[in-house]
Each structure stands twice: as structure tokens, then as C-alpha cells.
What we know:
By secondary structure, the chain is an alpha/beta fold. The protein has 5 helices and 8 strands; from the N terminus they run βαβααββαβαβββ.
Amino acid sequence: MAEITVLNHVSLDGVVQSPAGPDEDPRDGFALGGWAAPRMDQVLGEFLGSRMGGEGALLFGRRTYTQFASFWPHQTDNPYTAVLDRTTKYVVSTTLTEPLGWQSSVLLPGVDAVAELRSASEEPLTVMGSGDLVASLREEDLVDRYVLMVHPVLLGTGHRLFTDTSSPADLRLTDTLTTTTGVVVVSYERAR
């Protein structure tokens, strides 16, 4: 069975909305986009690079996939584009249609298809961003590991990783890493 890992930037108060840029996800009038960028350093860059170049496939929700697909295939001055291009990217969406524009992309029609893929495969799956998808996966108890880059910032508003409607789950701390800018990368496994 494939393991599903959630890899996400999160503010200290739990916000995951629009960490990379001001226009990334302005839903509900969110005007604080780009909050993670000032805290990027070499430590976090190397950590993310190792995750992008690791084994397995990526799992995206529609919004995050669309953003990645509009940016990464057009970048030529980094070591990540070639890896991302050849990595299988599963996209959970009920609104997109095939063929998807970014090479090695496969459309999944919903969370049930993710559960089937997880059961049928040994290939690890990493969810990047995709907060709405993470919530759906969590509700179906499909997340095996959370790797959270906790930024020392309180945003007060925005879509949160865990909400009042989240199901209870026991987790076990497996690793930590602290960056030079105070970001703490924490890894938790689902205690089953």
C-alpha cells in the first residue's frame, strides 16, 4: 500500500493559504499571500529540494496543480523542473479534463480514486499544497504522514490546514529540523 505524505507550509496559527505569492490564492479576500517567502533560506531550500527529487509521485488538488503547471514547466535555471516534469503527477479534480497540459500528469476523478490508487500501488504519494484535497484525504483517513514547515508568523486569517470540523487523529513526532529563519520542519506519522 502506498503511503501518502502531506508536505505543506503552515503559519503558527495554522494558515496554509497562499504561502508563495500575493496572487497565489486570494479567495475570500486573503491579502497576505507570500508570507512564507521571507523565511526561505538555504536549509529550507535544500530540504524542499530533497523532497522534490525523492521517490514517488505527487498528488495535487486542482488549484495547486494549475499553479504548478503554469510555472514549473517554463523554468530553465533550476534543478527542479526536469525532476517535476518526469515525476508522475496525480491531479484530483472533478472540473479538469484530460489530456492535462503538463507531461506525466494523470487525472483522478475524486478521493475514492486516490484510495484505490493508494491500495493498488507501493509508490509513495506526496501532496504539496492542496489544502482542500488534504482536508478530504484526512476525512477519509488516507494521510499517513504530515511534514509541516511551521513559519514563525501569525496571520490571523486565511484557510487553515486543520479546522473545527477535522476528525481527531493521533500523531507521532518522527523528525524535526530548524532553519536559520526560525521555520521548524516537523514530521508526524499517523498513529494507527
